[in-house]
Amino acid sequence: MTDIFEMLTTYFYDVFVSNFDGWVVLGFVAQGLFTMRFVVQWIASERARKSVIPVAFWFFSIGGGILLLIYALYRRDPVFIAGQALGLIVYFRNVYFIILNGRQSST
């Protein structure tokens, strides 16, 4: 049991302390932005008492997605790079539709 605890302690030290640098800070900031989109969506849905996706959700998605893509490029993680890059296409497309529909409804 002591060996398992020691292995876990070493692992978490290596992951969270030894490798801590500015890139890790960027990764955490990006993940925080990305997480905020769910918080925004949850609050909006609770207030409306139905599923709602507010515009802020897409802006947090874009901000977090761009920063996470930069982080993934730095880490050279092909799965993470592909996931973030493809997700950004969807986020920008949704903002495009919001802007397009907003212009149409105002004319």
Give Rg in angstroms: 19 Å
Estimated structural class: mainly alpha
* Number of strand segments: 0
Q: What's the multimeric state?
A: single chain
Number of self-contained structural domains: 1
Summarize the helix and strand pattern as letters: HHHH
What is the terminal separation in angstroms? 70 Å
Largest beta-sheet details: none
Tally of helical segments: 4
Helix fraction, binned, reads over 70%
Q: Spans of 5+ residues with little confidence (pLDDT < 50)? A: none
> Which overall shape is indicated by the principal axes computed on the Cα atoms?
elongated
Q: How much of the sequence is in beta strands?
A: under 5%
Would you tell me the overall average pLDDT? 88
GO biological process, one term: lipid A biosynthetic process
Pfam families: LAB_N
Keywords: Membrane, Transmembrane, Transmembrane helix
GO molecular function: lipid-A-disaccharide synthase activity
Q: Can you give keywords for this protein?
A:
single chain; 107 residues; transmembrane helix
Summarize the topology:
Elements (H helix, E strand, L loop, with lengths): L1 H17 L3 H27 L6 H21 L2 H29 L1
Helix pairs in contact: 2-3, 3-4
Structure description:
- With 107 residues, this protein is mainly α.
- It has one domain (23-106).
- Helix content is 88%, strand content 0%.
- The protein contains four helices and no strands.
- It has helices spanning 2-18, 22-48, 55-75, 78-106.
- Helix 2 packs antiparallel against helix 3 (55-75) and helix 3 packs antiparallel against helix 4.
- It is elongated, with a radius of gyration of 19 Å.
- 14% of the residues are buried.
- The mean pLDDT is 88.
